[in-house]
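agent> Task received from the user: take the single chain below, predict its 3D structure, and emit structure tokens. No templates, no multimer pairing.
agent> Plan: (1) validate residues, (2) run structure prediction, (3) serialize to tokens, (4) report one or two observations.
agent> Step 1 OK, no nonstandard residues flagged.
tool_call: predict_structure(input=
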Amino acid sequence: MALIAISLIAAGCSDGRPSSVDASAMGVDASTDGGASDDGGADAGGCADTESDPDNCGRCGQVCVSRQCESGACVPDFVGCSEVAETPTCDDVCAAIGGVCVPDACGSGFTVSAFPTLQSCENNNNSAGKFHIACDAPIESATDAFFARCCCQ
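)
tool_result: status=success, residues=153
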């Protein structure tokens, strides 16, 4: 009862202007146009750099799986360190991380970079070689390495 009375008193004290409410704190998706500029500028609530921010590349919320954004476009890169036997194609590797495979577009024109160990793959060093293969071709057909990074965007 006291809560209702406080709510009524607070409502009665309003000056008629809308109050500022943090909808996200209440678990509500309050995304609206809200006067945001087309490029999702700072007035949209925080993504001012759509030219080089990999979390807002080209527009707010556009995340680059390669973590590289140049001039508002995601740049493909070798990502997704995967065990070759478990992930048959680069299409599979890229899809698993929310991206798409880009054939022959990374590291001077390659689709896959292979590694002998998980540690070398995770550290992106001591590559066993880079290979030209179709995105839907089996990775193991190109290399006898155990781990691979694929060219994803």
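agent> Step 4: summary for the user.
Strands lie at 69-70, 73-74, 77-83, 112-115, 129-131, 147-152.
agent> Done.
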